[in-house]
Amino acid sequence: xxxxKPEEISHPPMEQLQGFEYCIxxxxxxxxAIILGFQHYILALGTAVMIPAVLVPMMGGSDGDRVRVVxxxxxxxxxxxxxxxxxxxxLPTVIGGSYAFVVPIMAIIQDSSLAAIPDDHxxxxxxxxxIQGALIVSSSIQIILGYSQLWGIFSRFFSxxxxxxxxxxxxxGLFERGFPVVGRCVEVGLxxxxxxxxxxxxxxxxxxxxxxxxxxxxLFICIALVWAYAQILTAGGAYKHSPEVTQINCRTDRANxxxxxxxxxxxxxxxxxxxxxxxxxxxxxxTASYKAAARLASATPxxxxxxxxxxxxxxxxxxxxxxxxxxxxSTVSVENVGLLGSTRIGSRRVIQISxxxxxxxxxxxxxGALFASIPFTxxxxxxxxxxxxxxxxxxxxxxxxxxxxxxxxxxxxxxIFLGLSVPEYFxxxxxxxxxxxxxxxxxxxxxxxxxxxxxxxxVGLIVAVFLDNTLExxxxxxxxxxxxxxxFRSFKGDARSEEFYSLPFNLNRFFPxx
Length: 514
Prior knowledge:
Helices cover 62% and strands 1% of the residues. By secondary structure, the protein is mainly α.
């Protein structure tokens, strides 16, 4: 075997990922774009169905209430996605329901004054109104952070070294939504996982009319096949004598969504009544998804001004969540970011088409409920791939840093470990004590602390940015990757920023980058 020279095994850093046929501002043909958009809609259903399935019964809601919450969440997800892709960061990101809000929302649900209401439906309405009020109040934090440029100022402390563990934790931190859920119905989840990997990776070069059909549409094909397989198992009586938990996770007829859904129902603001306000609940957010989405859209990192604009619009999205009553706040959908990489299509138009599907099917209740009845185990199998892909995108930022530096190894290792370990402690404590580790007399403070430290990317952000800006900083700029990073801090620092992030309809004349 010939000796390998050092220069032959080096891989020069690349600002944009390669192999993407369509990036953020290029568009596939309309037929392909529509199918790709439908794939993103189907993927977004997982979270849109799961969060209400957990929260609504605890609030006292019926199957009919759960269907309305799912419809409302999808409707607002479509609106927020359009607003973010048009006027926010302009990245191809789906803005959907967030699990990060579940912790403080559970605190509202368990409030003694609400839990004491004897009538289930009245308790559901009163609890929903309290959640709406909390979301409206909390939205002001992101709106202020975004439009005041405070988040943009804070982002000047970011570096490739600091962002790598944060974006990686965006994927790694969701491990509990992966194979642990697949294992609840392994005969459905495992075939889905294997089939998705085989079609999207091993058979990705199979083409029909010069289109890599299996790479681009593997999600749609796999879900259709495994859903039909799960339907056959259900109809054949495979779960007839199984435990209740197995039937819930495996059967295709246990969601009760189709029978409970109206044919046509248009969500509207204040549909649950006027929100009630308490000084008790507000929440935090993360920038990691935008960094990952930019890389998977083959775009340059979003400048500070664009990040601030995106955070501001994300705040408006949470305000809409509160006004419409989605039952949770919203953030960037990590699984949809991963799908950009799996399909190698980072087109903004595809995401906007998916937003159209969300709005359309949320109004046509029966049709939307049909797709929403897909067993969640199927989605969990896909998450195993997509969350891992997003985590790997985070690790790819390390190519711009010196990973032979013990300083850098320390920061990355400690940030990732604490980003996983601290939230796990908060989760286990909450499960055992039925409350978070922070339990002072100030409820708003408890919610802040318990929410922030239950989020792996947020813990990683705090640890990584603090260490990166305080530990041997004097001569570490090159090791941190700053020579590559600095041009992307400002809108005019790189000529491509205008191409990727300028507002549509020539609105930059009225809202110039600051």
